[in-house]
Amino acid sequence: MLETPQTTDVARDDAALLGETANAVRAAGSALRERFGEVVRYRTRQELMHALAANDDTALEILRPRLTRLRPDAGWVEDELDGGALPPGEWWVVDPAEGNVNHLHALPEWAVTATLVRENQPVFTAVHLPLTGETYTALTGAGAYLDGRPLHVSPTAELGLSIVATSQARPDEDERVVRRVGDSITAMLFDALVVRTAVPATLHLLDVAAGRTDAFWQFAGARADLLPGALLVVEAGGKLSDAEGRPWNPQSESFLAAAPGVHAEAVATLSR
Fold first, then answer.
1. How high is the mean pLDDT of the chain?
2. What's the sign of the alpha-carbon dihedral 178, 180, 182, 184?
3. CB atoms within 10 A of CB 38
4. What is the pLDDT at residue 216?
C-alpha cells in the first residue's frame, strides 16, 4: 500500500489535477462554513441523519460536478463509511464533511477531503479546513504540504515523550472493537506522554504529518477517514502499518501512523 512511483508525464498530470482538486475542496468548505456557527438540535436519530445529510449534500453539489469533470471515467465512492478494497480503475474517495457531527455541534474539528485512488493506491489528496483556511495536499512520490510548505513528521524517538491520538471508527461499532479501543487507550496511558481521543481521524493524521503529534492509531475504519491522512503521513516521512506492525491496506482491521522513531514502541504497546 502507498507505493512510490517514478516521475512520469502521468505524475505531472496528477499534480495539475491535485491543484484543481484543492480548489474544489476549498469551494465546498466555503459553502459549509456559511452553514456553521449555531448548534443544530435534534431529538431523534432520524433528525440527526437528516442534518448530517444536509451538510453532505451542500458540499457534494460542489464537489461531484467539479471532480467528475476532472476525471470523467473515475468511479465515485458513495458511502464515506465504506471500507475494504476498491474495484480496478480510478475512484474518487470523498468525505464532503469529515467531522460532520462536530460541525452540527459548532465544534471546529471538521474538514472537506478528496482523494483520487488508482488501482487501490492513493494518488493524491486534498484536505481543507474551512475555519482556518488551511489546505493540506499530498501527491504520491512528491511530498506533503500545508499551503505549499513542506510537511515533516516528528523527530521524536521515545514513546514516553510522545503525544499520541486515537479515534472511533464509526458510530454503533462492534463491541469487540470498542473493547479493543478501550484496552489500547489504557495501554497508551501507561506508555505515552499524552493520549488524545477525538474525532475525526483525518485531523489527527494531519497533526502527525505536520509533526505536531507523534502517532495515531485506530481499529477498523473507512477509506474516507484514513486514506487522505495516510498519504499525507507517508509523504511527510512517517511510517504506516496495522497495529501489529504488518503492512496496512484498506482491508486491515487496524491502523497505525507514526513518526519512524516511535513506530516500533507504539506497535509493542498496542500489541500487548
1. 93
2. negative
3. 8
4. 98
How many whole angstroms separate alpha carbon 176 and alpha carbon 183?
Answer: 11
Give me the amino acid identity at 182. Answer: G
Contacts 24+ apart (CB under 8 A), 13-18: 14/116, 14/123, 14/124, 14/139, 14/140, 15/124, 15/139, 15/142, 17/70, 17/71, 17/116, 17/124, 18/124, 18/126, 18/137, 18/139
* Cα angle value 228/230/231 (rounded, 5°): 70
d(C-alpha 21, C-alpha 134), whole Å: 14
pLDDT tens digits for range 229-257 = 999 999 999 999 999 999 998 889 999 99
Return left, alpha or beta for 137; rule: phi > 0 is left, psi -120 to 50 is alpha, else beta.
Answer: beta
Give residue for cell 484498506.
Answer: 250
Residue 209, pLDDT score: 98
Q: What pLDDT is attached to residue 100?
A: 97
**Which value, to the nearest 10 degrees, does the dihedral of the CA atoms of residues 161, 215, 233, 167 take?**
-150
